[in-house]
Specification:
The chain is mainly beta and 110 residues long. Helices cover 0% and strands 50% of the residues. Strands 2, 4, 5, 6, 9, 10 and 11 form a seven-stranded mixed beta sheet that branches. A four-stranded antiparallel beta sheet has the order 1-3-8-7, with no helix packed on it.
Length: 110
C-alpha cells in the first residue's frame, strides 16, 4: 500500500485548505487518520474516520473547524480545514491502517 498526500501549502490565518490522501491497493476496509507534527513537537492525531465513513473522531483543538471525509471508490480521504490558525502549521501525515504517507506541509502565516 502506498500513501500519497497532497494539497498542502501556505495560507493566511482565517483561511481554508483541503488536503487529500490517496492510497493504492485495497484500502476501503481500513480506517484513515490524519496526524500532524509541528516543528519541535511530537506528532499528534488530528482526525480519524472509520472504513465505513460514518464514524469520525477529532482532536479537541480542531473540532468545529476541520472535517474529515473519505471516498472509498477513489481510495481517498480528505481533511477540510477552515478558520486556520498559526498553531495549525505543521506537516500533515495520512495513515491508512498501519501504513504512513510522507506528509504534506501546511503553513498558516500572514
Amino acid at each position: 500500500v502506498q500513501i500519497v498526500e497532497s494539497g498542502g501549502g501556505l495560507v493566511q490565518p482565517g483561511g481554508s485548505l483541503r488536503v487529500s490522501c490517496t492510497a493504492s491497493g485495497f484500502t476501503s476496509t481500513l480506517g484513515m487518520t490524519w496526524y500532524r507534527q509541528a516543528p519541535g513537537k511530537e506528532r499528534e492525531l488530528v482526525a480519524a474516520i472509520f472504513s465505513t465513513g460514518d464514524v469520525t473522531n477529532y482532536a479537541d483543538s480542531v473540532k468545529g473547524r476541520f472535517t474529515i471525509s473519505r471516498d472509498n471508490a477513489k481510495n481517498t480521504a480528505y481533511l477540510q480545514m477552515n478558520s486556520l490558525q498559526s498553531e495549525d502549521t505543521g506537516v500533515y501525515y495520512c495513515k491508512v491502517g498501519p501504513y504512513w504517507g510522507q506528509g504534506t506541509q501546511v503553513t498558516v502565516s500572514s
